[in-house]
Amino acid sequence: MVEGLARRVVADEAQRIPPTAHDADLILGVCDKMHPPLSRLAGTISYRALLSRALVLAKPKAQTLAALRFESDGHLMFDPEHPAAEFLNRDTVRQDAIVLVTEFLNVLMLLIGEGLTVQIIRQVWPEVKIK
Amino acid sequence: MTVEIGKLSTGVPGLDEILGGGLPEFSFNILGGGPGSGKTTLAHQIMFANATPEKPAIYFTILGEPSIKMLRYQQQFSFFNSEMLNESVHFINLSQQVLDESLDVVMEEILREVMAIRPHLVVVDSFRTVVRKVTAGIDELTLQSFVQHLAVQMTTWEATTFLVAEYDDEERRDNPIFTVADGLFWLFQQTERNSVVRKMQVVKLRGQESVPGMHTFRINNGGLQTFPRNLGLAGRGEAAREAPRLSVGIEELDTMLGGGIPAGDSLLIAGPSGCGKSLIATHFVDAGLRNGESAIIAVFEERPEDYARRADEFGLDLSRPVDAGKLEIIYLRPLDLSVDETVYELLEAVKRTGATRVVVDSLAGFEMALAPGFRIDFREALYRMIGALTAAGVTVVTTVEVAESFTEIEFSGYTVSFLSDDIIRLRYVEFDGEVGKVMFVVKMRGGDHSKEIRRYQIRPNGIVISPEPLRGYHGLLTGIPKLPKKE
């Protein structure tokens, strides 16, 4: 269920990204959209802690995620100098984004429960079907 | 024309009664207490009970307990409804603003959200974090001004507000912030020997009469449940002069009592171990059930199924009435009960079943089930319990074990006999080198009664009382009677 939801979130986000955008913007866009509601709900520190945990869990399954790191303000950024960056392309980014979002949702559901997680998803991506 | 202050129901069982009808609308309140005392849970419970899409609530979290953990734990309570989030209930974290900015910026942020969402209920948790800014360079006057500004703004925006804060007892004195508050609610978690008792006090509540004193409460899956200390005592009416008599289920004993127990009385059965106190109480319940009445038995020393099985051995069937909902055997033995909680359980059971007869078996077990702190005031506890039950119109039979003495006669070890309207005393007596049992009625507040001392036996069909009084003996009450030598 979680992976399916992650797929729909990534697909929805992919539609909104302009064709000229950087490949990494799909991943960063999803995470950035989760930032305001999560920070509002639980604070920036919590958002960063949750996303960090998801990243650690997702990295072994998605090579290009190694090129992501946090900025001091809590935002995620893509490091083009990182060796993993060279594997990033239109084909890999979508799959890697799904892996990260799946882990992010898993962490959220584990800690704050399905109800609250679904509320956040509905708030950010109102057109995405939950089930 | 006077201003009419509306009252919000708290959604916490018992708390509206303690507050004198509910929370004053648009009041500015402080919810204080030590760590783990239940402040956050109480605030959540009130919020979820009151928030609607038309009258939403905002819960501002500021450092203190991390929001993720708070949300995780609060979801364990049945009142937490995640479907209400973002429409009826808004959680907003202000930790960063408090850490990085001045109190003015924090105020601006709160007001910005309040103006946008128009909440009817606002919680700031933990307000203690804001207070700690004082020690980090902001003077006390600025803090007091902040609180006053907040209070005025929240009332102006028609929001009932709670500041949740950890305070110890020392800080409760001479705290200028508390002057601003309309309501001061304090939660305590007291350790008494090995048990922990939760208590709540309404220290201050403007505009309405709350119930003074400490009220015990429990936290269970449903959140807080409070037990007002005057539970059941309000409105106790005068007993009817000519109350109908209830049969005890033992014909001879009914005769000794002058026709049975006056309805609405409390009867104490006192006697040593094994003399049949519980059996008489069971007869009393059985008689009511046979008469179509409902009953409650509160047991403390054995499990309900064991109690019913023992009654069954005497041909008194309690199991079927239990299955039929006519009888509830309530087992109360958590060892940290409060009196109010016990009274609440019994009154709720009376309401559920429409019981007219209640047995408390026994007082010694009841005392043991209470937290140590409540045992000190056991007589007061009994007074309140019996008062609440008889005020509810039920007839109460209690049993009490007394140590058998062969030099004096006691009515109970608790000197509670004055609390009972009627007393039956059972005792062992030596007859011709054998132990026999006798009973007599000590007191009937409602009228005359037999003064006879009757011998009785415990038979397979229950208590069997001799139809004739013991005559000719001297010193029966000492337990070692003598028959005067025949001339």
Write up this protein.
The complex is a heterodimer of chains A (131) and B (487). Chain A has four helices and two strands, in the order αααββα. With 131 residues, chain A is mainly alpha-helical. A two-stranded antiparallel sheet of chain A has the order 1-2. The model of chain A has no long low-confidence stretch (mean pLDDT 90). The termini of chain B are far apart. In chain B, 31% of the residues lie in helices and 27% in strands. Chain B is of the alpha/beta class. The chains are: A mainly alpha (131), B alpha/beta (487). Chains A and B meet through α2, α3 and α4 of A and α3 and β5 of B.
Rg of chain B, Cα atoms, Å:
29 Å
Q: How far is the first residue's CA from the last residue's CA of chain B?
A: 91 Å
The largest chain-to-chain contact, stated as pair and per-chain residue counts, equals: A-B, 18 and 16 residues
Q: N-to-C SSE series of chain A?
A: HHHEEH
Rg estimate of chain A, integer Å: 14 Å
Number of strands of chain B: 22
Question: Which spans of chain B of ≥5 residues are poorly predicted at pLDDT below 50?
Answer: none
End-to-end Cα distance of chain A, whole Å, is 7 Å
Helical region count of chain A? 4
The main β sheet of chain B shows up as: 9 strands, mixed
Shape of chain B: elongated
